[in-house]
Design a protein that fits this description.
Layout: H1 16-25, E1 29-34, E2 40-45, E3 48-52, E4 55-62, H2 67-74, E5 77-91, E6 94-110, H3 113-126, E7 143-157
Antiparallel strand pairs: 1-2, 1-5, 3-4, 4-7, 5-6, 6-7
Protein name: Pyridoxamine 5'-phosphate oxidase
InterPro entries: Pyridox_Oxase-rel, Split_barrel_FMN-bd
Pfam families: Pyridox_ox_2
């Protein structure tokens, strides 16, 4: 997979500390995937994430049925996006928006056994919960996926 090079390279964010700071404050990840009849679907989700060097992994959860779950079992190639809007401002002769966003590509992989618990902890931590016990029965009705991003770009305009 090759993401086309960003046109405005001066907006590219490469510093992982800045990316983590942004991801810590963002509340919603959008997951895009191939749905039925070749139409794309995009869903807003709560998420968790982890960093290993310059590698980003995102985690999300859901039920064992429905379009998302069934579609990901057929085709697990996904695109994720998260952003944080700052403000609109005048930029003569027009206007512009200040924001930071991250777009990445990877494969959604359903987690099993202890990985599910670890993934769910990352989601809950990102959503503002401290450490809480997770009832194993939760995973009878809840799937947990991870997406290790193969490629991503983070862009900031201010």
């Amino acid at each position: 997979m090759n993401i086309p090079e960003m046109r405005k390279q001066n907006l590219l964010v490469k510093d992982m500390d800045e990316i983590k700071h942004f991801l810590d404050g963002a509340t919603t990840m959008r997951l895009a995937f191939n749905g039925e009849d070749d139409y794309p679907i995009i869903l807003p989700l709560s998420y968790g994430y982890s960093v290993d060097g310059d590698k980003l992994t995102f985690y999300f959860h859901g039920g064992f049925n429905g379009v998302r779950y069934e579609s990901l079992l057929k085709d697990n190639h996904v695109c994720i996006e998260t952003d944080s809007f700052e403000r609109y401002r005048q930029a003569p002769p027009s206007a512009t928006a200040d924001y930071i966003s991250l777009v990445g590509f990877g494969d959604a992989v359903e987690l099993k056994d202890d990985e599910k618990t670890d993934g769910m902890r990352k989601i809950l931590e990102h959503c503002g919960y401290g450490y809480i016990d997770i009832d194993p029965d939760l995973f009878k009705i809840t799937s947990v996926f991870k997406v290790e991003l193969e490629e991503y770009t983070c862009k900031k305009k201010e």
